[in-house]
Amino acid sequence: MDKENDDEKQELRDGLQGVSGIADDTESVPAIIERRGEGDTEPAKPFLTDRPLVAPGPKAFISRLRGYGLAIPNVGTWHIIQFDFHGPNGAYQSRQTRSFPYATDFDMAAGQWEIHYRKYVDNKWWDWYNSTPFFTADPPTITTPPGTVFETDYPTIEGKGLPWATFQLFRHQGNALGARVTIGPSGDWSVTATDPLEEGTHPIAIAQTYGGWNGTIFGGPLSITIKFPDPVIDSPRTGDVIRERKPVISGKGHTGATINIYRANNGTPIYGTGTVRNGQWSIPLTTPLPAGPFTMIAVQIYAGETKCSSNVPVSVLPYLPVITQPADQSLQSRSFLLSGTAGEAGTTMKIYVDLIDVVVGTLPSVTGDAWTVPVVIPASFPPGEIRLAAEQTLGVPSDRSFYRSFKIRPDRVASLSATVDGNAKVTVQGSGTVGLTLDIHYVGNETPIKSFTVDSNPWSKDFPDWLPSATQYSIGARQSTPGGDNQPIYSDWTEVAATFTVAVPVPTLSYRVNSEGIPTFSGAGRNWPEQAACRIEVRLNNTDVPIVPIVEVTGSGTWSSAASERWAPGTYSVIARQLFGTLSSTSVPAIAVVIPAPLVVIEKVAENGLFPQFSGQCWPGAVVTITFSDNDDLHPVPDIDTDGKWTFQRPAAFSPGKFTASATQTFGGQTSHPVSMSFDVPMSVPVITPPPGGQTEYLPVLHGTGGIDGCLIQVLDFVTHEVLGEVVATADNWTVELTELDYTSHTVFAMQSLGDIKSAGEPVMFNVVLFAPTLNLALSRTSVPRTFMVEGYARRGKGFDRTEVELYLGDAMQPRIHPRFADGYFERRVTLPLGPCELKARQFFKDQISPFTDDLEITVVPDKARIETPGVDEAVGQLLNVCGFGHPGDTVVVALAAAIEPLLGTAVVEENATWFCQVVLPETAGGLSIVTEQRNGIYVSGWSTPRKLELLDVEPRFTAPSEGAWTSQTPGFAGDARTNASVDVCAWYDLGTNWAENLDGSDGSWAGTSEYGLPEGPNWARAVQIIAGKRSMPADSKRFEVASPDETPTQAPQPPLI
Questions:
Q1: What residues have CB less than 8 Å from 206, skipping those under 6 apart?
Q2: pLDDT tens across 174-223, in order?
Q3: How far, in Å, are 793, 826, 834, 853 from residue 777 at the CA level?
Q4: For residue 58, is the peptide bond before it cis, meaning its omega torsion is within 30 degrees of 0?
Q5: Residue 497, SS3 per DSSP
């Protein structure tokens, strides 16, 4: 620390580097030092005296962390102070400053320190001073987690600090919370508050002091929460069953608090009360708990605050019931009364079979101590001893009472029946109790004939050896169980006996037929021990004579009997019966015995072109059916002369190739299995019919003969063998369309084939030329209208070449027509005057010119007149207006389609092409049709399509009101009609509104009054008569006047006379 004067300047400069506050001075420390006299070289004097700092004071105990504020005695203004810090293990720091108080800017090592300081004034450093020792340490740390919730008002806080130090809890910036605690060498501390903290959140600090040193170092603050614990019921637990009415309730709570036990949601009564000690409480209840479900709650009261526990639902058992009647071990039916005591009002009393959960009796509401319950023992419990116990329930069941034993009688056998199957096996069925002994006896005889243990309910037992009898059996039954003394306890006898009859069983019947057609019959029968064997008789149905020998049933229960000779093919109805002594079974249902037909014989297939002949042998009188492999047709061949021989030739020709013939024969309804034979049919030669004149068009169609149905006919070029066309033949005659050929000479031949079989015909030569076009008009002398369409077909186009057609109307040639390229179709609309005309045409293609068509004679006539009105199916009267359209100047005649003569009317077509004709239709029921014809001189159009009409009946007639008559607003109407007609009257302007309906006209006259008020002023009415649902034409009345409501018809002014 001692320095020479010449070193002070550098030492001071180094020591002041980084010291806060120096930069705020108007003159730096080095500048101050430079102002010292150059002759001032006196060194600083060491430690003239101990002069403690104000802070840290003597023996101070402070935090070692930076930021500690040093305070020194007054040293004057503008003094510069140098502090040298000397700590443990050679720790050293040096700082110079003129700003006070000065806060350390470094952390000091933990341990004992001294501070040596001096001042710089009057241009020189003065003597050093010693601060006296002080002690530094880390602030204590709190390890208890922030926000910890304590359920006590005396929390314990833990942490780490200086070994051997003393610690004390404080409210942050508040009072101490307890005594001081000194710890050992570990540095771990734990301090419990001795002053209580109220509920809520508190900031807590920890104070650390150290023996022999002065001062306190604080740690924290730590925020903690005080929350007193809610009361908890530990016993009983949720769902516990409580048998005592005043049990002990225990749990946890806040020490010193008061605990009251209540029923949840009910403030009275208090069932018990107590105090929490050391966090635990235990309360014997003073008020008994009620029976049934009970939810308890603990209420804690402490420091004026009330807290409740969670609800604890428990079950409080009712009292244990006691059975008193009937007596123990008494004999009872399945239904009886059971009584007892110790009932509790409001409970439900149930009687159980002891040790199991089967209820045999219930009393819905017990009224007091005594109780009685009707008991019914289920049939599922066998008779004999049974133990019963009682249990009462009020939300929860009590414990079961001590059992009481009773003896239950067996049930009567409620049902008993017996059936006999087809093999005489007797099956007895009935009800019973499983495990009991059941005895069967004949009615009137108590000696059992059958005994067995019942193994099911209902039960069924088979007795196969009951003998057939002509009389009826009658049986009864009862059941029993062993009593406690091993004596049986019997049920009553069955009320209704079972009756049955054992008949001789029907045998089974089957058969087989050997290859010789001889049948053998067999089946199953029945024998009884120590009885003569049964016999089997086989007969044709509806006969009395056995058809095979009668035989006995063997010991194995089978039988067999064979016919002595062959049976003819056919189906036979056969029955059989079984004989037992003088008794007989009914006959087995008839079975069909089939004797199959033998195989037919195909002996020979004689060749005959496409029509080979077949022959063979069959059963005399049989029908032979023959089929062939080329189709499924059946060909029946009857053996009419019954000589056992047959022959057949198929009318349809065979195609060439290999075939198979199959044949069966039928006799007596039986058809034999088929037999087969293969045969061959040779191929025929196709022949081309030369074209007429040796000419064809460019798409030739050749015809020929020698075709075979199904064979392929091909026409080939004779030189190149190119296939020009082909077809599958369907008959002897065939036609083949060839591909397009050039206009030249061609030689072709035909080849017929079927698979690999082929046959070629002779060649034919022809020329291909351009034919005349075709006109699509009807036959010559056809009648056509003035304007009509000429249509036809010419040769189709090819490549860039197309056909042209010249059409002549008489001698006048029309402009050339260009047919449609794809198919040669052409058309031309022409208009001609009335009269005859001839048409003809020819065509041109490339350099080819066809001949003209034959002249086609036509006659131009008027077109059919068109009917505009009446429309199709229109309803009309007898007087009918007919109008339509036609050709100006022509005459239109109208006639009935069913009878042309006489004509109904005629009309001349006007210049505007319309015509009109009024006709009178004949009276007829229902519909009719009219037709028209347009005429001009000798030329007529022909009749039009019939126009169907609906002819209405004649209209009725008005006789009232008279013309100009004044009427009320509901006038009366009258008139004449057909006999048996009804009349509807409506407004002339609204046919849908009837003023009067269904007016009777049965005597030829009708009358009625309007059902509606008519408007005042002039009116007209319209009437329709209806006969058999058919309406007539309408009839209109004369005009009449309707008076106003305040006038009468007689007061109304009369129209003036004219």
A1: 140, 142, 157, 159, 161, 167, 168, 169, 170, 189, 191, 218, 219, 220
A2: 898 988 999 999 999 999 998 888 888 999 999 999 999 999 999 989 99
A3: 11, 13, 18, 12
A4: no
A5: coil
